Structures are given as structure tokens and as C-alpha cells.
Amino acid sequence: MGYSKEIYKATKAKMEERRTNAERKADRIREEVYRRVPQIEQLEKQISSCGILAVRAVLNGGDVKSATQDLKSKSLAMQNEVKKLLVQNGYDENCFEPQYSCKFCKDTGYVEKDGRTVYCNCFKRLLVATACEELNRTAPLRLSTFDSFNLDYYSHQVDKESGVSPYDKMQKIYNFCVQYAKTFTTNSKSILMRGGTGLGKTHLSLAIANEVTRRGFGVIYVSAPMLMSTLSNMHFSKDSSDSEYFDMLAKCDLLIIDDLGTEFPNQFSTTQFYNLCNSRMLLNKPFIINTNLSINELEKTYTARFVSRIYGEGIRLNFVGDDIRLRKSL
User: Fold this and answer.
1) Could you give the CA distance from residue 172 to residue 176 in angstroms, rounded to a whole number?
2) Burial class of residue 30, CB neighbours in 10 A (0-12, 13-18, 19+)
3) Is 265 in contact with 301 (CB distance < 8 Å)?
4) Beta-strand (E) ranges in the chain?
5) Which CATH superfamily is 136-329 part of?
6) Model confidence over 117-132: pLDDT tens digits?
7) Average pLDDT of the residues in 94-98
């Protein structure tokens, strides 16, 4: 899976919308200025006529250089007068120029580089964002929020060994996740959420995704079985778009891998999974991994070295309590 034709088409449509909106806004400002300061409209008409007169001078022959130089001087003087009048009336002197989102490509999505027309960096960023939206289209990102997380399902009974109740433990985890989402940056720490089934790992990771996405970051949520299947297929695929998919997973602002350990692991998928996580760690890109597996079980499947690295560079959240889904059904 990579950047399909639909993704490119959707991205180009967004670029065109940006460009159109910028130009329409500039046109509205021009219309407003003409109503408020009619003198500016008259000056712009005279500036335009100078261009026509210059063309005529070339066609008619004679002292073309002198004629065009004179018209150029008059045009420049009127342009300066227009800028002066704009500022006097509370406008920016360049307000007639469209304010494009990207000054390099002027929202066309293309730039010239080494004699070739290539995609602008702004288009590439928008392409990734559009692809992230498509990947998350069927993900349950909006089904879980911090507001809908109910701590009442956790027991207040104090654990004899830890001296802390599941409620108090989960309240601290909840507060940490809220703060993590509110202060998230692309350099935030990674998180390993570990614990039994139905303890709220998926809910809180999706709640983080909701808040982080709302703040404008690109988030990709994927289940471990789906991820491993795709990574395994990529190993045998000759499709160049697969490298783009891997690149998108490696470079998005936040990657969430849900239910690690529920997939059917094989040598290829495990290696690709390691490469993916290692790439993100080298780029200082955070990820959130949810798993029901114990540390020993993780080490058996993904090697002790790999688990040690995640533990050393990430934050461990150990979820406790009874299966919430069972309690909800009672």
C-alpha cells in the first residue's frame, strides 16, 4: 500500500483549493480598495494602459528604447503612488498580491530544480497528511476520548503487594496520558502500554490520538495484525509504492500500534517491524505500542535487545485492574 492515484488526486485538489482561496481573497481585497479609494483603481487602469502603449511603440518603430523607457518610468511612479495610497488607507502595500501558503511554489505544488519540474516540499507534506487521513478513515479514532474514559470501573481495593488500588494506579496513568497529549511534540517520548485484556490501553491511546490530531499533528493508528501482514507482503512485493508506505509509517508525527502480540509473527514481518521501530527511534519519532504480552513473552518474539531498547528510550505504563468490557456487560 502506498500513495494511490486517489491520494494524489485528493492532494492536488487541496493544493488547488489553497491557491484558489488565496487568489479570491486578493480579488476581494482589490474590490474593497477600489470602492473605498477610487483613485487607486484609476491609477491601476493607467498602469495597465502603459503596457499597451509600450507594445504599440514597439510595433510602430521609431525610438523604441526612449519611448518604452519613458512609459516604464511613468508606470513605476504610478505603482509607487498606489502603494503610498494603500498604506495611507490602512492596507499593506502588497495586499493585491495573493498570500499563498507556500512562497516557493505559490500553491501549485511544483517547483523547478536542476532544470526539472518536481514536487514542492509543501506538496509532499500535504501528500503524507492526506495519506494519513485515508489510513485512519476506518480507524476508531473518534470512538474513544478522554471524556468517555470512566475510572469508576477500576477497583478502590488496595493491592497488598503494591499498596496502591487499581483506581489510584489508573488515575495516574489517565492523568499522564492527558498531559502527554496536551504537550505532545514530535520529540515526545514513546510509550509502551502493557497489561491484560480490556484494561483501557486502546481507549487511552486513541484518546491521545484524538487530542494530538486536533492539535494538527499527523497520527497513524494501525492494529498489529494489519501492520505485520502488510510489512510481510511488502517484503515480497516489487511495488515501489510499498517503500512510500513504509516511509510514511516511519516519518508520521505519531505512530500507534495496537494489540502487539495478537498477530501471527514470522521472520520477515518481525524483521520489518524491528526496522520500522528502529527507523523511528533514529529519527526521534515517538510511537505508542499496546500489548497484552508480558516482558518475557515480548522478548521471546521480538528479542531481548529490542525490548530493552524500547524500555530504555520509552515510557512504560502498566495497566491494572479487571477486564472493563466484562464489567460493563454485567
Assistant:
1) 6
2) middle
3) yes
4) 110-113, 116-119, 190-194, 219-223, 254-260, 287-291, 314-318
5) P-loop containing nucleotide triphosphate hydrolases (3.40.50.300)
6) 998 999 988 887 787 6
7) 95
Q: What angle do CA 235, 1, 285 make, to 5 degrees?
A: 80
| Cell of residue 38, nine digits | 477610487
Sequence-distant (≥ 6) Cβ neighbours of residue 217 within 8 angstroms: 184, 186, 253, 254
Please measure the distance between the N-terminal and C-terminal CA atoms of the chain and give it in whole angstroms: 42
Cell of 325: 468490557
Q: For residue 30, is pLDDT > 60?
A: yes
In angstroms, rounded to a whole number, what is the distance separating the alpha carbons of residues 138 and 326?
A: 25
pLDDT at 210: 83
In the chain, residues under CATH classification 3.40.50.300 are 136-329
What is residue 136's predicted lDDT score, i.e. its pLDDT?
Answer: 64
Give mean pLDDT, residues 274-292. Answer: 91
Using the structure block, give the residue that is written with the C-alpha cell 536542476.
114
Report pLDDT digits (tens) over 219-253: 888 888 888 887 777 666 655 455 667 777 888 88
Match 468517555 to its residue by C-alpha cell. 148
Grid cell locating 100: 499563498
* Residues 168-212: tens digit of each pLDDT: 999 999 999 999 999 999 999 999 999 998 899 999 998 998 888
Amino acid (1-letter code) at residue 83: K
> Could you tell me the three cell numbers for 261?
502480540
